[in-house]
Structures are given as structure tokens and as C-alpha cells.
Amino acid sequence: MIAPSTDPARLGFDPGRLARIDRHFARYVDDGRLAGWQIVVTRRGEVAHASTYGRRDIEADTPVEPDTLWRIYSMTKPITSVAVMMLWEEGRLELTDEIARWLPEFADVRVYDKGSVLKPYTVPAAEPIRIWHLLTHTSGLTYGFLQTAVADGLYRAAGYDLSVPPGQDLATACAGWARLPLRAQPGTSWGYSVATDVLGRLVEVISGRRLDEFFAERILGPLRMTDTRWWVEEADAKRLAALYRPDPLTGRAVRTPEALDRAALRRPEFLSGGGGLVSTAADYHRFTQFLLRKGELDGVRLLGPRTVRFMTRNHLPGGRDLAAFEPAGFAETAFGGIGFGLGFSVVLDPVPARVPSSVGEYGWGGAASTAFWVDPVEEVTAMLFTQLMPSSTHPLRPQLRQLVYSALVD
């Protein structure tokens, strides 16, 4: 469970202004745009604000509760990135390593140049995919569901859309992606992609452990993230929030197709390092505090502080932001003034996005409109959980930033 641990005024928040958060987001539920939500705001490691509202399942008429389970989708990516950097700290890999050193199927990748899905023309990759390309989403890989480039269509034609073809595991999925052309030459542009799933496979190969085993033994167990898992057993199924999408005519939240909604209730063959986890606010709070404390929590250190600082700097070539680095398709962040580190978006300048934040703030979000950020300057973390796909439906994330930073008055 997670609840406020102190008077928010002691942490520099105006309690009346913090209350605006709940009033604002309650309107999304009251008019039917969201089923329900959970929000947590902390400062200096203490919970200043924690609230729930609405229903975790409209049809069953069950409320959002503090221990509700949420599909966090791409908020899995920072955890996978931490796993990679743990191996890096052990000297098991270099960020400049060619991924083909570990996954030889990526040795001779080709790049889409012109043509159609039916008849694409490709050229050899001028630069091999390296581990830092995967961590920064500059590898040239893509997602089939983006539907913004011919390469995306080639993924969909091969069965890689929202997930992978039935029967594939992480190893066979990587082999399939390696046979498809890249969207762009490695290192030349930023494109959201299956790169973090490939990193998950890298963790498996180097560690000799399945990704779920590595997570449990090296990250989730030590951080006491006891409710974070790859699927939900029957005993906990009632705690899982239902998954919704906007009705195209009314904008109201309606249930997603059963196959997508119930996917989290089955043990997956494909362990998606890019989007496979289910978690709770209390568990992900522990992950954000581990990050805020630069790699340590409750006496357990998984990363050195310099490694966390290094991960959360902008790694885009030339120090550019996403807007200047030829972004393609969708992202779980704005582009202007935002760079990208090793697994996180990083604020370079809050002005282009027209939303207050601190230079150096970092975070990410998930496909069902979940999000988190860590602000090392103000020592603030914030998390939003709901279950509406896609995450681009409503401006929930910038609005939460507006409300959190306007409540900070010290």
C-alpha cells in the first residue's frame, strides 16, 4: 500500500494546490473519458500525495484501490535498461559493442531505402547496431504498430504488430526482427522500437538466465518489488485493472477486445523487455526511489551513482533534442527540448514543450497512459496509472506536470 507519509507543506507543497490534481483528473472519470486512475507524488523520498479515483473495472463496478495492478507496458523499458547497465558495471559488455557479438543474427542487417511493402529496396547498414544504439532508440529498428513508415508495414506483414506472432519467444522474435530491414541507418535518427526487447535478449545471453529470472533475482527481489510480475495469477486477477480505449464517436472509455484485455492473465512465451510487466503504484514507487537515490534503496545498491547520472544524461549525438534528431513516429514523450539517455527521456529545456519541469528530469511512460518522472533537482517523483490505449489520447502527462510543479511553493 502507498499513502501520504507526512504533511505536504513540510516538503514544500501547498496542500490546497496539490488538491487540484484530484479535482482535475476526476473530471476525466466523471465524463467517461477514463475508467479510473492512481496518482502518487513524492519529495525527498516521502509521499506528499497519493490518491485513487474511479473504477479499475467499469463493467464489474470495482473501484481503483491502492493495490490495483496496472499493465505498465513501456515503463518496463527503464527496468530492462537498468539490467543492461548492471551487466555493464560488471564488465560483461561495452556500450560500443556490436550487438552481433552477442546476437549473431544481427550481423548483416539491411536498411530500407525505397519502394513499397510489397517490393522494398534495401541497402547494407553503414554502421553496425551497437548496444548504445539500442539503449537510445537510435538503432534503426521500429515497431509495426507505429504505421508511419514502410519499415513498420514490413513488420506488420511479418506478424509483428502490437506483439509477436504466436509461439515466438524472445530469441525467435529477435531472429525475426534481424531479418527485417531497419527503418534508418543506425545512429542517424531517433525511432521508438523493439530495441529494448533486443536488450532483454542480450541480458539473457550474457547472464545465462531467462529475463524473468534475471529480473526476479537481480532487481525485483532486491528492491522488494513483490507485486511486479510478467502475468497475473488467478488469485490476483480481480486486482488487475481492465484495459480501455476511446470510443471514436463519443470519446468515452470502452473495453478493449478480450484477447488484448486478458493477455496479462496468461503466462507469456514472449518476455517483452520493452513492455511486458504488470505492477502496482507501491512497487514502481520503490523503483523511482531507487533511481532518485542514484542506484540504492534501503541499503541495497544495484547501480553506482555515477552510472545513474550517466544513464540520465542526453546521449543523442551532438547534444541535440529529439525534435532536431529526425524523430520518426510516436514516442511516450514530447520532442522539443527533450533528449534521450540510456533508457529514459531527459529534459534539456522545459520551454519548447511549454510545461514546467527541471533540466535533468527524466522518465518514461507506457502505452496504456501510465507515466513516471524523476526530478533530481527538486527531489520530486511522480507517477500516473490508468489503463487507456493509446497513451496519446489525452494530455494527461503534461497536465500532471502543470499541477505538480504549480503546487511546489518553497
Task: Summarize the model shown.
With 410 residues, the protein is an alpha+beta fold.
Explain how this protein is built.
One of its GO terms (molecular function) is hydrolase activity. Keywords: Hydrolase. Its EC number is 3.-.-.-. By secondary structure, this protein is α+β, with helices and mostly antiparallel strands. The protein folds into two domains: 8-75 and 227-269 and 278-407, DD-peptidase/beta-lactamase superfamily (Beta-lactamase); 82-212, Beta-lactamase (3-Layer(aba) Sandwich), CATH 3.40.710. The protein is built from eleven helices and 16 strands. It has helices at residues 15-30, 77-89, 131-136, 150-157, 170-179, 195-207, 211-220, 258-261, 281-292, 305-311, 396-407; strands at 36-43, 46-57, 62-63, 70-71, 110-115, 120-124, 244-246, 253-255, 278-279, 296-297, 300-301, 338-340, 345-347, 362-365, 371-375, 380-385. The strands form five sheets. The chain has an eight-stranded antiparallel β-sheet with strand order 3-2-1-16-15-14-13-12, with helices on both faces. The chain has a two-stranded antiparallel sheet with strand order 4-9. The chain has a two-stranded antiparallel sheet with strand order 5-6.
